[in-house]
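Predict structure. Chain length: 373.
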Amino acid sequence: MHALRLVERERLSGLDSRMLVAKSFVTQDFVQELVVERFATDPGMLDFDLRADGLSAHPWIRAADLVHFHNLHGGYVHPYSISSISRMRPTLWTLHDMQALTGRCFQSLGCERWREGCGHCPHPNTPPLAMPDRSAELWHFKKAIYDRSHFTAVTPSAWLEGLARTSLLGGHAIRLIRSGIDTDIFRPGVCIGKSGSSRIRIGIVAERGERSSWKFVQSIEWLLDSLHPSANGFELSLVGIDEDDVSTSDSRLVRIPRLTGDQAMANYYQCLDFYVSLSGAENYPLAVLEAQSTGLPVVAFSVGGTSEIVEHGRTGFVASVQEPDMLVQYCLALINDATLRHRMGVAARERALEIGQIDRAVTEYKELYESLV
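Prediction complete.
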């Protein structure tokens, strides 16, 4: 989603930006699906069994002045394309998770093996699934590729920037450019279609419809049970979590159909009183930024770059993953104190305007493009 927003704004600013993607969810002439054949089927090798020449031979790549990678682990780019393309064109690579730093994992979940070579993966059941465990082999493949490549890495969070500098990418230039959103869409507003319920509405978003329960430090059921009976009337409003992910029939749980587009998401946030993230693995969570921009206090675990968005005690609260009961206490504080919700909501909007405007990100990227071409 961030990449599409960025390209749309770049085109409005006069750049001829185009996107090659694994699967397109929009109908635009500047977005094209890239189909790359596999020469073998080896689930342990992830994308190393793709044809390596599929991307570098594409006419859009050959015509480009500069190539900007985003997520490359979608089953459509052979990692060898990184070195071949970066020798053809000036290249930068925005990292949205840790997968570029590890042998396999999107997020290390506390594991430190990625610093020295991976192998004996302690989290074999987290995505992307790849058995048998060949994470050490993949790590060394990546190192060889990066050693033959010339690119600038960009991270949306200072947290990931710090990790990247001590990783396989440490020999490359690394820049911090925070991801942005349209703060004119994600803004405080009147809830459309709000019922007369007096319940406090707490929002939770799960990856815009993707199954992400593996990242949850605690479950939805745990939060519901932990808030009862201490809290006054409330309901949890969930977007993007499948029926199989949450088994409870608790009447305080409201499932929202999957929403598409920024305006639909903004309307959802505008119907909430505050927002909660149960995730234990994040880079720079845009749902948290969107919620704050809509004027919502946020309660979250202090993982990844979350604390770079949420200012503890001012725009919301962050709790250690080792102290989940503190997250419950912070939720109770907001449920029971309308004045606190209002004060933090105002500060949350101010924070989003300060760090989260997409036009600021576009300007920083354009300056970087100009320095590389």
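Summary: The chain is about 30% helix and 15% strand.
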